[in-house]
């Protein structure tokens, strides 16, 4: 549908109909206007899969892709585009027209709960990956929604905090990926952040929404609020927020109509936003295919292969004294140790969660590759959970149409495991807002001894074992960190149980007055010193010890930041014990952010595998055994200690405000300027082969303002294996009128090279690559004078450099300055 037809349709609509388009009708859809044949639009989370409209737990199955930090670690924009295309197919299979992704907030603090869901600390890398992702998604006719605009770098008090960011940091860092998403990838949707920016909620910040996004950058798509992040009627509308999500409307609908009638909102503003919604409907082809599509779980072989490849390519080899890749012909017995060895950590927590088609554990991945040729030993060693491991038992459910478990119960569908979120009527005739439930199962322990039971709920809950109340999360229920801060913290109880005996476990639940409705039961045997000892003994008895440590989606999750930067529980102790028992110890880390590695000197190898999606174990096995190259490079600096992180001292804020006091000097910019050696620098990652860099050639030594500089060099694979090098280009402004970072990433290319092969790499730099944002002039300025081009394998491993001069100042107006160059 062209613009003219959109306008014709718009003009045929009554004011009421136009207003009805500006708020969700349900949690995931907009309202149709049947009179005019305008269908509803359906959106779906999220960055690493398309969940569809169902529950966060146990919904329709979906393909689970590598999380954002893993994708960015590939530095492979073509691969990211392929992932975007596959995600669009996934969205289609869920009947969704718009994917609520990508998340492009920057890695400012290492403690951010959503670090895993964001690409990088560097705006240029984030921009390149985000553009590639959006182009992939939108090439399939599905809309992308770049989020969260802007300043959502932490989950601490995210619904109310004000991110106080000065203009230069905003323009040179935090806005850049959004700017690229709009100007280059032409994203069809943008989602506002929950937080305030400099004192005003992002969702009603006129400067951000109208002046910058729509006017300066020319955004012509739909700007939606984050879920429940609309706080006003007239203010948000006048600021430029097109769509309140989710529905039904809280601040729009009748209220918006009244605001228009009272002269608080102009009819033109309504029309402009309604036109944008119609344009989006047209872009995603819903006028041609208006019928809603039933959600399907399609497990495609080509998606499996893509996920496996991307997961492997995102792993970063942090240390290798020659032990990797493993040569199975020289190994008899391998120890697989650690809490993540037989648990597949495939994604982070929060709205990015999907119900994966399957999850391959590292143990399964290695077993599949090695067959019976090598003996695999296994020990857990210690735990790394935040909540007690889920009780994975089917439960029966009985529902009551009141909060007090009174009257006759209505049987509901059985539950596959002991976690449930209720979005719809739980059983016929039972109101989802005001019900209670009794869930029952039988639990037969494998071992004698003490067992811990845990209960988390959004709503009230209590747990009985053989009729005896063991966990009371009812009489003293308190709001905590779970379920997007709607749930309690975990309440626990301890009981001595006998192996082989069946116990009745009953959970009673009642809905809260409002918000999410959910309950989760965990159970475990405590792990103690003897488990660490058993792990060390196994390691001593094997040729190689692989230790799978890290976090999971309870630590790396939306809505909660991590309390520190260390591996949780006794994992550091476990690694040290194992490394003392076997010099060939390799640690496979799975975290969504940097962690401290106090045992680094003691181990032979470290591989950072992040959360690589449903093929996790296969991707990890591919890299460990050399079937795939670890060509990932860090998108975020690993500081030695938390205190070295740029945000330290300016995080998490207080009294409702967090000041980004480090300004421009975030990530490697901070480490460079303050001369603080990182543990692993930005851009770092080893390979199984080696590379040599030739000299740099610049297209000119004297660049005219407005011109483009071409940088050329040769890269050679000097090792015996095929491999991929990520050639990184940084720019240094030798002298500037305003403070600038020591150097900044402004180009990169991933090159695949056979042994002995040489390729020529060409990178170009435009004016934006040289410019800073002059907040006094409100313009981009590249100052005349000398610049240095630095090329290397990481921000601290630079192999070639050359200088050139910019002849005169270049000043780029806000509207014309290109996003990336
Ligand atoms: C998240 C968004 C997400 C939305 C819908 C919010 O809690 O911040 O990223 O798209 O929920 O699930």
Task: Provide the descriptors you would attach to this structure in a database record.
821 residues, alpha/beta, Rossmann fold, Jelly Rolls, Immunoglobulin-like, 6-stranded antiparallel beta sheet, 17 helices, 25% strand, binds beta-D-glucopyranose, glycosidase, Beta-glucosidase, GH, Glyco_hydro_3_AS, beta-glucosidase activity
Structure description:
Helix 15 links the parallel strand 22 and strand 23 (585-590). Helix 13 (362-370) crosses helix 16 (616-624). Among the domains are: 301-376 and 546-554 and 573-672, Rossmann fold, CATH 3.40.50; 395-524, Galactose-binding domain-like (Jelly Rolls, Sandwich); 689-812, Immunoglobulins (Immunoglobulin-like). With 821 residues, the protein is an alpha/beta fold. The protein is built from 17 helices and 37 strands. It binds beta-D-glucopyranose (BGC). Beta-D-glucopyranose binds next to loops. This is Beta-glucosidase. Residues 390-537 form the PA14 domain.
Briefly summarize what is shown.
By secondary structure, the protein is an alpha/beta fold. The chain is 21% helix and 25% strand. Among the domains are: 301-376 and 546-554 and 573-672, Rossmann fold (3-Layer(aba) Sandwich), CATH 3.40.50.1700; 395-524, Galactose-binding domain-like (Jelly Rolls); 689-812, Immunoglobulins (Immunoglobulin-like, Sandwich).
Hetero compounds:
beta-D-glucopyranose
Task: Kindly estimate the percentage of residues that lie in beta strands according to DSSP.
Answer: 15-25%
Low-confidence stretches: none
- What's the end-to-end separation, in Å? 33 Å
Average pLDDT number: 97
Task: From the 3D structure, determine the CATH topology of the domain at 301-376 and 546-554 and 573-672.
Answer: Rossmann fold
Estimate the global geometry from the Cα principal axes.
globular
CATH homologous superfamily annotation of the domain at 301-376 and 546-554 and 573-672 = Glycoside hydrolase family 3 C-terminal domain
Give the biggest beta sheet: 6 strands, mixed
Specify the number of helices. Answer: 17
In spatial order, strands of the major sheet run: 9-24-23-22-10-11
CATH classification class of the domain at 301-376 and 546-554 and 573-672: Alpha Beta
Number of strands: 37
User: What structural category characterises the helix and strand content?
Assistant: alpha/beta
The CATH architecture category of the domain at 301-376 and 546-554 and 573-672 equals 3-Layer(aba) Sandwich
